[in-house]
Amino acid sequence: MNKQADWRDRLDSALKGNRRDAYSRYLQLATVGLDGAPRCRTLVFRGFLEESNTLLAITDGRSQKVEEIARDNRAQVHWYFARSREQFRMETRVTMADLGRQGNLIADVWSRLSEAARDQFFWHPPGEPLESGETLSPTESPPNTFRLMLMEPQKVDYLWLGKRHQRVISVSSGDMWEETQVNP
Amino acid sequence: MNKQADWRDRLDSALKGNRRDAYSRYLQLATVGLDGAPRCRTLVFRGFLEESNTLLAITDGRSQKVEEIARDNRAQVHWYFARSREQFRMETRVTMADLGRQGNLIADVWSRLSEAARDQFFWHPPGEPLESGETLSPTESPPNTFRLMLMEPQKVDYLWLGKRHQRVISVSSGDMWEETQVNP
Q: For the whole model, what pTM was predicted?
């Protein structure tokens, strides 16, 4: 692997510096809705794909965002670290992990989920009128509602709201990243 | 004014219950970029327009989001309250306050800003390569880079990640709001 990108160093250090706050692992994913209007929701960061800058998150295959990403897989990851006052805005391309090629990775992420997190995948379809009937019984292996999302950054806009604001834009070109300091 | 919308009661109570966290007044605004891809950034909530559910925020007239909103003023306000584990996702229409009709409101919001917040409007153009030269001197009255954004909710998707998750969707129809409980 090449030298790690500078933005990734900053992100690793933000994750470390803010780790006392459980919510520092919550990021926002913005997509374009089927009506062409923007959508945004909070997701839990589930780590990086090994030896890469690709971020992992999970979602329910029945959720609206899966349909949105199928139509246009450009998504912005937004991450604000309250304690260190740092904002990361990443233009990403999102793909869903493939059960054939990435079954082990899917199973690994599934196995590390809490029971409560797993249970959600056996509930009634999200977003539909509230149903109170029995839900399915949880299984040991990932159910077919489970999706692992791979979010690959193409461009990162970093803002540090320190005493003197700083802003750096990093753009991917092949395996390299080009950085430009810009006015905050 | 009609009876306050139930989602607004929930939002007021989230603001109250999370007020110890300064960052509980930070929300995210998602827009569609000029390239058709989604964009998202953190903004500071500056209160409600009097006797309405319209949210206020400020921005720099030279920022990218102003151009994006001029082209498509549909924006999603995302707000996550870490302490109470509540997420509000609002489909809004954004307008910029008009200096002719709303000059007093603009001046009022400006007058309540901290010195540091005001200074930003006199900096070099945001997003352009870093310039180190002298910036303009701050003025008492709002400079012409200052914009007050009015974000009017049309639909609110509320999610409470309590012991038992709850989700309610509220849709505006005229002066009324219709609520539906949906599967989380």
A: 0.97
**Mean pLDDT value across residues B109-123:** 96
* Nearest-angstrom CA–CA distance, B43 and A2: 35
Please check the confidence at residue B90 and state whether its pLDDT lies above 90.
yes
- Interchain CB distance below 8 Å, A76 and B38: yes
Nearest to A55 by CA among A92, A106, A30: A92
Contacts of B17 (CB under 8 A, 6+ apart): B81, B83, B84
- Contact (CB, 8 A) for A108 and B166: no
Fold of A26-126+138-156: Pnp Oxidase; Chain A (2.30.110)
CA A82 to chain centre: 18
Min CA distance, A79 vs chain B (Å)?
Answer: 9
pLDDT band at B2 (very low <50, low <70, confident <90, very high): low
Partner A contacted by B182 (CB < 8 A): yes
Class of domain B6-126+138-164: mainly beta
In chain B, what is the straight-line distance between the N-terminal and C-terminal CA atoms, in Å? Answer: 31
- Region B27-33: mean pLDDT is 98
Q: Is A22 exposed, middle or buried (0-12, 13-18, 19+ CB in 10 A)?
A: exposed
Looking at beta carbons, which residues of chain A come within 8 Å of B74?
Answer: 36-38
CA dihedral A122, B178, B92, A25 (to 10 degrees): -30
**pLDDT, tens only, B133-143:** 888 888 899 99
Q: In this predicted model, what pLDDT tens digit does every residue of B168-180 receive, in sequence order?
A: 999 999 889 999 9
Q: Tokens 């910029």 belong to which residue?
A: B96
List Cβ neighbours of A119 (8 Å cut-off, separation of 6 or more).
A138
User: Which residues, given as ranges, of chain A have pLDDT below 50?
Assistant: 1
pLDDT at residue A2, as a whole number: 59
Domain ranges in chain A?
26-126+138-156
